[in-house]
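Side project, low priority. Logging it here so it doesn't get lost.
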Amino acid sequence: MNHPLTSPSERPPGAVRRRALPLAAACTALGLGLSGCTSGDTGATGASPVTSHGVQAATAVRQGGSLVIGAEQEPDCADWIATCAGSIWGTYIMETQTIPHVFTAAREGSDWVPEVSGLMASEPTISGGARPKITYKLNPKAVWSDGKPITSADLKYTALQIRDGKDIFEKTGYTKIASVDTPDERTAVVTLKESYGNWKDLFSGEYGVLPSHLLQGRDRDAIMKNGYTFSGGPWKIQKWIRGTSVTLVPNDRYWGRKPHLDKVTFQFTADTAAAFQAFRSGQLDALYPSPQLDVIDQITSGLPKTDIETDAQTGNLEALWMNNARFPFDSVDVRRAIGYAVDRKALVERLYGPLGVKQPAQSFNSPLVSRYAGTDFSSYVLDLKKVDQIMKGAGWAKGGDGIWAKGGRKADFTIVSLAGNKRRELTEQVLQAQLKNAGFAMRIKNTTAANLFSKVAPAGDFQLGLWTIVDSFPEPTLDASFASGSIPSAANGQAGINFMRARVPGLDGLLDQVAADMDETTRVATSLKADKLIAQDVPALPLGTVPNVLLWNKRVGGKISINPVRGPWWNLEDWGLAK
């Protein structure tokens, strides 16, 4: 799923969640990795499916005990459908463990795909036609923590709260719902206004299912925002001490696998050095650090008695975003020349080589949706002769300073990213040198995440940007970033994230087909055509994927792995104290 926006508490720093929704302050941090063994084909994403170092197989655990896990960011609220819930860390530490979803994400070979959850008695079905009907059959064993059954009324309540509510974080897909019928307690039938290829995202991607018997007719936000007592998952929120920690305890009425642990505390540790010190001393049992240079230094310096798993098959794609409506990037020739002026492979190896990412991304479909991705950007490799050919052919000439000029205007521009982010600053410095060597003058003027994603980018008040796009569900949503209708405007409520003002000829129709088509084969084929058009027009330039990393000490056992959609603690019920 494609999103815009992120709040200052999302991952990675300077990230935009791909999907058309109203912007709030935005910044996230997506986990990083460490070098190790690699498997699989890098393909369009430039990322090996899994890179791991010291990763252990599922280990036996004993019943009982507790763990303390470092959480580098504290969410603003726990009302998951409200605009205050932009933080992906809220998903990681509370929502995933307490709110049931219809579909989750599972690895299938080298791909991530939607997989029906235990909430369902069977996989939902969808009819064809102009107004498709989705039928959901609920598991009769599924109950809330108060013992009340999870019913079709809960799906209806959740759908209508999102579709019709105010101050809603994201409505994509839910606005396509015409009606929700509940023929019986365990059956919900959702009728769509039109065909919708990403229908599995409903009750699954951003949102799960909420209890209507506790929330209907009441102030949902007031009940949920500071933590809630109900649960439809394996854990319950015992307490949330603002500024300090969140503590989870088992939901004894959960119908699925029960937790091994008696308690898990997520301790907020925003300071990287302090977090690693606490991890080394044993005060913290696990960390999921964000991709900063000091984090890499901490990891590569050695962490005794530590297991590490890294995964490059993520939804995190870093790119250069060119403002197609601003000089000099209003010229497709300049944009293509930039593609040949940047040594993306050298840049990615320098930044992420020790993290298991060796090749640049060749598509704007992230590894999470790799089955929809082509490799069309692979033609853009460092080639200064090609730069000269394109620029001269477009009427540009180098001046005495070695910078291209045309019509009295030089090919100089400013890049914007996050101030104080050392990894981004290093990236900019490398780019600055590479581009100067190709005849382009680039200045650096960074700003805060809030200013960048709430003001600068939506207003198109930039020439070149450097940030990460984040897919949060294994379904294609390039339309959020590249469709002309996703350019932020009054007409769409400033909701799009086509900050580049890209208007690629012929692309909108293809993206509309991908969004609407429910036949997987034709959907993939159409997506590959869209990829080709994007690479030809170069509205932006993909750099590389940002891998995730999870660290845990030898006290921890169980089946431990990273899920790029639900986070590192997606199966916290399987964690425990190693025997």
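Brief comment: The first strand starts at residue 15 and ends at 17.
Revisit when time allows.
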